[in-house]
Amino acid sequence: MSGPVLKVEGLTKRFGALIANEDIDLEVIPGELHAVIGPNGAGKTTFVSQLAGELPPNQGRIFFDGQDITSLPVHTRALRGLARSYQITSVIPSFTALDNVALAAQAADGHSYRFWRPARSVSGLNDKAANALDEIGLGARKDVLASNMSHGEHRQLEIAMALATDPKLILLDEPAAGMGPAATEGMIEYLRSLKGRFSILLIEHDMDVVFSLADRISVLVSGRRIATDAPDNIRQNAEVRRAYLGDKADSLVRHRTDG
Amino acid sequence: MWPSRLLFGASRFDLRHLVVLAGLAILLLVPIVGDAYVMRVASRIVVLAMIAISLDILLGYGGLISFGHAMFLGSGGYVVGVLAFFGFQNGFIAYPAAIILSVILAGIVGYLVLRTVGVYFIMITLAFAQMLYYVANGVQIGEDYGGDEGLPLSERNPLFGLLDFGDPAIFHYFTVVILGVILYGSYRLVNSRFGRVIQACRDNERRVKSLGYNTFRYRLAVFMISGGIAGLAGALHMNLQKFVSPDELHWIISGDLLIMVIVGGANSLIGPIIGTAVFVLLEEVISNLTEHWMAIFGPLLLIVVFFGRQGIYGLIRPKADDG
Lengths: 259, 323
Ligand SMILES: Nc1ncnc2c1ncn2[C@@H]1O[C@H](COP(=O)(O)OP(=O)(O)OP(=O)(O)O)[C@@H](O)[C@H]1O
Ligand SMILES: [Mg+2]
What we know:
The complex is a heterodimer.
Chain A: E1 6-15, E2 18-28, E3 33-37, H1 44-52, E4 59-64, E5 67-68, H2 74-80, E6 82-85, H3 97-109, H4 123-136, H5 151-164, E7 169-173, H6 181-194, E8 199-203, H7 207-213, E9 216-221, E10 224-229, H8 231-236, H9 238-245, H10 249-258
Parallel strand pairs in A: 3-8, 3-9, 6-7, 7-8
Antiparallel strand pairs in A: 1-2, 1-4, 4-5, 9-10
Helix pairs in contact in A: 3-4, 3-5, 4-5
Chain B: H1 5-8, H2 15-33, H3 36-61, H4 70-85, H5 91-113, H6 118-138, E1 140-141, E2 145-146, E3 151-152, H7 168-191, H8 193-210, H9 215-241, E4 243-244, H10 251-264, H11 270-289, H12 293-307, H13 311-316
Antiparallel strand pairs in B: 1-2, 3-4
Helix pairs in contact in B: 2-7, 3-7, 3-9, 3-10, 3-11, 4-5, 4-9, 5-9, 7-8, 8-9, 10-11, 11-12
The structure holds adenosine-5'-triphosphate and magnesium ion.
Adenosine-5'-triphosphate (ATP) binds near residues 42 and 43 of chain A.
């Protein structure tokens, strides 16, 4: 009975003469982890920003949970259950990790026009935030100011915040960007643990990450979606290999023979 | 039990507590030991400290640098003056009216200015305050009042004769109590759920939006709250001086208020009070020595800003404290 959680039709975004997204159709099925890959400048972040509402599309429609959200503002989409994490870390630097996540939990909880009771004494929000941090491995760092955390910790905090808003769909824009190999491994395991609990649209550069996690993969090249398929089929898709993978195609083949 | 605990929780007794308690003691003792002049200066500090706190709620907590906050000193004062002109002297009418109209003014101005950020926000708040400055200059009330003459207040707004405001000491104590209420209320406000959203907007508005907050509405609300507090301060200022004039709205006053907040320590509630006291005292002392007192105050300001962005309060505040 349930249709796609996200349905994009003919999404087009131009920056002057540059066509960053061209007539993109895409669907995310409830519970799936749908990865979007593509070379630098393919238009992945532009795509996500339109879904989240930060960039208005030139053409096309976006349906979330069956409803047209194309012209809704960012915060309304978020309240309906569309969460995002940013490719470039975006947290509240002067807040502790716990307060960052509690802020996110508070958004979903509502009741933010309360002026008297200290926010830090609301145990419901604190507990939820502490759980989210525990789960992602930042439990021991919850009282550290975000401005004093490392890049890798910021990446984790970013995702804990997105999850604390009780989303139906999470848009993750390169969650492991700039992380070392060990931390990336941890992030992959964490994302795997989210599979099935949320619908996820994952933007990622790292092929290992994508091919080991995704249920389906869409490939974006020069603003156009050239394929959407299961990982194994994407590996063998001639157009994908020619247009996007190019020199990386070898590594893909190797990857396949390994697995 | 130290009253300063209301502000700093159960933290250990440190310099902050000492400063707050000493300041309170001085304010309470002034009517007993000081002459009329000293008391006037003290009351002026108390009243201006209220508006400095209200400005810091915007600036230090909300990240909104308003260069037009004197408009509320004017709105509160003029509401009192106009009501008195038409025969409404009762403080139970005048003070609430000053607050309500200032909140409405803040709502209108905020609705228009909060669409801008950064330098544009600074400039457009300045522009609005200057516009009101010219309005106050231009509007004549009756034959002898208003315009650049300003408005007088024949006697301080009585509160049903509960307190005799003819006695400056009683008026002084009244303002100290109001300052205490504003201070404590602001402390609750900035630490509340609402305050959390406001402070998050200061750091990263885009992120706060993407979590599901309509940041414009929160900012408008805080602008109105700040305007209401400032309007009350304006009404008390008018009562203290028994006079209001367009000068109260001038951009130089808005600038002075910013200096008080920044010198004292933005993003704290005690800081603006300290800043106001330092500013008013220096103004009184140095301006007696030389007309160009800003030439001395300017370098002092630079020193404070150099020694840390936290202002004077930053020097006495324990490290890693965000209360
Ligand atoms: N605000 C903007 N104004 C003008 N051009 C833009 C803007 N944002 C993105 N672009 C351009 O649009 C194209 C797509 O950018 P986008 O950031 O979406 O790519 P991406 O696939 O996320 O790349 P990366 O893998 O490097 O993150 C690029 O050529 C970029 O320079
Ligand atoms: Mg990108």
